[in-house]
Amino acid sequence: MKPASDAREARLHKLMVAALRGDAQAYAGFLRELTPFLRAYFRRRLQSLPDDVEDLVQETLLAVHNSRHTYDAGQPVGAWLHAIARYKMVDLLRGRAGREALHDPLDEESGALLIESAPDAAEARRDLRVLLRQLPDKQRLPIEYVKIEGLSVAEAAQRTGLSESAVKVGVHRGLKSLAALIGRRQ
Amino acid sequence: MKTDELITALAAGAEPVDSRAPSRRLLLAAAAGAVLGLPLMLVLLGVNPRLAQDAQLPMFWVKLAFVAAAAAAAFAIALRLAKPGMPTRQATVVLSIPFALIWLLAAAALATASPGERQALVMGSTWDVCPLNIAKLSLPAFVLALWAMRSLAPTRLPLAGAAAGLLAGALGATVYTLHCPEMAAPFIGLWYVLGMLVPTVAGALLGRIVLRW
After folding, report:
1. What confidence category does residue B2 fall into, taking pLDDT thresholds of 50, 70 and 90?
2. Theoretical Cys-Cys bridge with B36: which of A115, B64, B132, B140, CB 3.0 to 4.6 Å?
3. Do A75 and A143 reside in the same domain of the chain?
4. Structure ipTM
C-alpha cells in the first residue's frame, strides 16, 4: 500500500506544481485524480450520511481551488489535501452537531487521504448551478462563460461588456462567493 | 452539476498562482497593524518623556528584543497555521524561546535582589494599566491579522485565531515600549505577557466564528 501511495503523492505533487504555474491541463488532471480519493475518504467516514458525500466532494474541490495559493511546493501535497478535506468534513459535521456522525473516528495521520479511491462519479444532491444563480451578474456571467461554456477571457469580456480584468476578477470572486454560499446553507 | 463538470469548470483558464501571496498578505497586515498602533499610542498614552535616557540602558533593548522576537515567532506560527497541513511543532518551540529567556532573566533579577526590592521589580509603578494598554494598542493589528488569516485557509481555527492574536499582542507590546517606563525583567515577564495574552485569548475565542471558510 505504502509505495503505491508514495507514487500517487509524487504524481499529484508534479501535477499541482505545474497547475500553480498556470498549466490548466495539469490542473484538470490533478483535480480529476484527486476526486476518487476524496469520495472514498468521505464515504468511509460519513457512513451515516451517504447523501452528503458528493456535495462534500464538490465543496472540497472548490475549497482546494480557492485556497491553492496556500500550497507550499516543499510540503507533501497529501498532507495539504488531507487537512482541507478533513476541515470541510468536520465543518459539515459541526453544522449538524448532535448527530452521532460526530463520534466517527477522525484520523489524524496525514497520508490517509491518498490510500484508497472510489472510481464512480456521482451526481451531487446540491446543484451548484442553482447556487450560481444567486450570485450577482458580474460574478455569475464570467463563471458561466469562462468556466462552464469554456469561452476565453477575451470572448467572455466581449459578450459581457466587461473588461478582461473584470472578467478574471469576477470569476475569482464568484468562486469565493460560491464557496461561502455553500457554507451558509449548512 | 456533476462533479466532472465542476472539475472542467475549475480547471478552465487556470491562472498562475503566487505561493508567496500568503506570507506577503500576513506581513502587510502585521506591518500596517503596528504602524496604526503608533498614532493610537500617541493619542491615548503619549511617548515616554524619558525615552532618550531609557534607550541608553541595555534593559530597554532587551525589552524591545523580547517583544520583537515574540512578534516574529508568532508571525511564523500564524503563517503555518494559515496553510492547511503545515506542521507547527518547530515553530512552537521557537516561539517559546523569547518567553523562556525573559523568564530566566526575571528569575535571575529576583534571585539577586534583596527581599525588600522584589515587589518593586514585579509590580513596577504601572502594573495596573500595562496589560490593558498593550491590548488596546494591539487592536489595529488584531483586526488586520484576523482579516489576513481569513483570506487564507486555516484549518485549526481556534489555534489560528490565537496565533493571529498573539502576533497582534506582540506588535501592540512593541509599540507600547515607546510609552512604557518599566525596565525590570520580572515586570515584563508578567505584565507584558498578560497584555499579549488578551488578544491571544480573544483570537482563540473568535477564531471559530470569524475564520470559518
Report:
1. confident
2. B140
3. no
4. 0.90
